[in-house]
Amino acid sequence: MKDLVSPTPPPPIIQNRHSEIRELFQRYVVPSYGRFDLVLSHGAGSYVWDVSGKRYLDLGGGIAVCSLGHSNPEITEAIVEQSRRLVHVSNLYYQEPQGRLAMALTQCIAPGKIFFCNSGAEANEGLYKVARKFGHDSGRFEILTAFNSFHGRTLGGISATGQEKVKKGFEPMIPGFRHIPFNDLQAAHDALSPSTAAILIEGIQGEGGITPATPEYLLGLRRLCNEKGLLLFIDAVQCGHFRSGRFQSYQRILEGVSGGESFVPDGISMAKSLGGGFPIGAFWLREAVHGVNLADSLSAGTHGTTFGGTPLGCAVALKILEVIDRDSLADHVRVTGDWLQSAIQDLANRFPNVVRAPRGLGFMLGIELQEADQVPSFSTSQTPPSLQVVHRLHEAGVLTIPSGNQIVRLLPALNLPRAQAEEGITLITKVIQSFA
Ligand SMILES: *Cc1c(COP(=O)(O)O)cnc(C)c1O
Question: Which residue ranges form the domains of the chain, and what is each CATH number?
Fold first, then answer.
């Protein structure tokens, strides 16, 4: 018989895999991300498992990307089916999926056209070029963006982003961007210069902490841009694609608001949820803007990207649109999102010394926490409250996304079942209680 008090047993193989994989990152992957100490291996729906077999309820959705959850069989089938026919062809040629997706997206917005690219930052880059082209002959080039915005990590993206932390160390910025306070119409008015060509805002600020634009701000910016002949662009990379319960967040924000039905921006950038995890980005341009056809302003040879709108990416995005429509996921997001929001409000009522308030709309929600110095259990650590909560949620088996120091974001799959939303709230409640 074996000695029961033998030296410490060898670590399970799983543990080796965890540290082995981490080791690979430490040695070979550029350390530009602050990563959590989780090594994920597979997923199904809104659950993911780490390499040790622990299950997590994923309420972060890959930062608003996995619109139909993980390993969705219909997406898998779309990938398999399309990849049997054609994965990629150059944009030197026509192919059906790109044309059909462009039509489907345009029909969700207003008359216009779509350019396909591969990411959110790249979609915004396209909009910057459209603004420059638009203003070129009149000597206008400047784009106003909001403080606390986020527009991506390319050089143009960090120049456009209204947060110092993304710019630091990479100066000089690309000229032609200035920042204005979000939801402050007068500030936008006052900031205009003879060089201003466009205003770009998020419908709901995401990285900046889940702040929806107000109806007055949207309508006021539209009026201002009409008066001054400027372009109004919406960065819908995070807040778009039914995350708010409508295709675009401005549609939801302006519901029931007088004049809201006719609100249309001049350009919209998209990515994240569009491909459900398959990388694809796009921007939409409106047809008739200030007497020009903006949708035709990028003529042949003026813009492009090798991988933009591959048959594979477009087939996946088409499948996602089909499932969202068939399963009425917009309504589901609205109803379940409202329920989640009221559950977070209950948390704020029950534990007012930990949770301040819910934020956001639909499945773009934030749990706003109290300041560290007001909560004894937060102030015992230097770690920001948002990270402390996210860490403890990991222990409890839930994935969420911190946003700044104070906000924990929920950006779940659009098909998160109600029962799993309830399960999430039960676990979140336990964790919040542990800080109270
Ligand atoms: C994520 C994000 C981007 C950048 O998208 P990438 O695909 O990471 O380049 C741009 N704008 C907003 C609002 C985002 O949330």
Answer: 17-59+329-435 (3.90.1150.10), 76-326 (3.40.640.10)
For 36: left if phi > 0, alpha if psi spans -120 to 50, otherwise beta; the answer is beta
- Residues 371-428 pLDDT 10s: 888 788 888 889 999 999 999 999 999 999 999 999 999 999 999 999 999 999 999 9
What CA–CA distance (Å, rounded) separates 117 from 246?
23
In the predicted structure, residue 362 carries a pLDDT above the cut 80: yes
CA distance 247 to 332: 13
Which residue, judged by its Cα, is nearest atom 10 of ligand 1? Answer: 151
Q: Check if 150 has its Cβ closer than 6 Å to any atom of ligand 1.
A: yes
- Indicate whether residue 121 lines ligand 1 (CB < 6 A): yes
Say what percent of the chain tops pLDDT 70.
97
C-beta of residue 237 within 8 angstroms of C-beta of residue 273: no
Distance between Cα 152 and ligand 1 center (Å): 5
Strand 40-44 and strand 47-50: pairing?
Answer: antiparallel
Chain centroid to Cα 191, Å, comes to: 27
Name the token pair of 311: 């048959």
Query: How remote is the CA of residue 261 from the centroid of ligand 1, in Å?
Result: 27
Alpha carbon of 61 to ligand 1 centroid (Å)? 14
Percent of the chain with pLDDT over 90: 93
- Residue among 361, 376, 372, 436 at smallest CA distance from 404: 372
